[in-house]
Amino acid sequence: MMMNTNLKIKIEEEEEEELFDDEGNDRLPISQLFQLLQQRQSISMYPKIMETWFPQQENIHDCRQKASRKRPRDKNYNDHVVKGTKRVSEQDFAKSPVIERAEQVQANLSAEFPSFFKIMIPSVVCRGFWMSLPKEFCQLNLPNHDATVILVGETGKEYRINFLVQRKALSGGWKKFSKEHGLLVGDALVFHLIRPSKFKVLSHIYIYIYI
């Protein structure tokens, strides 16, 4: 380490000596000398300026274009979407085409039982993995105590998910379900209560939920 430091100092001294003659007089006019020193200083600061003004960021609004590709999708896709973005809520997707699609699905469902749809946001499919449900819907249609939810995928595979009544959310087990079904930020799921404590979920996937 000491040798590298001495070498650096020696090189800098040699560079400075080039600006002067053997008698210590300036070889260049003062104005040009000052300009040259400024140029050297700006070059040494350049990497820091680039890092400050050109950080790598992902834009949350790019996710729908990436989401249009065929599944299976990159398991790390959601992580890339979230980095460098602000806090995202369902309101950020208010004008997304997926909202219109979810509403169309709801309109074609039987009105005998209630339904709702949820947009997948980072806290649901990227970090935390809390699948919050509408408060009023939970109060009217779900048990008033913690329960186990069984999600049955179209392949027949079952997923046991914890429903927490205080949080009005699905928690333990939801992460595995989300990952295996390739849910992305911006996806929509439509939940249709087809009989007491039994849901049919429509959109990207088709599953049944038993409580």
Automatic annotation (TrEMBL):
This is TF-B3 domain-containing protein. GO terms for cellular component: nucleus. It comes from Gossypium harknessii. Keywords: DNA-binding, Nucleus, Transcription, Transcription regulation. Its main location: nucleus. Residues 116-211 form the TF-B3 domain. InterPro entries: B3_DNA-bd, DNA-bd_pseudobarrel_sf, REM16-like. Signal peptide: none annotated. The keyword Transcription applies. PROSITE patterns: B3 (PS50863). SMART domains: B3. The lineage of its organism: Eukaryota, Viridiplantae, Streptophyta, Embryophyta, Tracheophyta. It is found in: Nucleus. PANTHER family: B3 DOMAIN-CONTAINING PROTEIN OS01G0234100, B3 DOMAIN-CONTAINING PROTEIN OS11G0197600-RELATED. GO terms for molecular function: DNA binding.
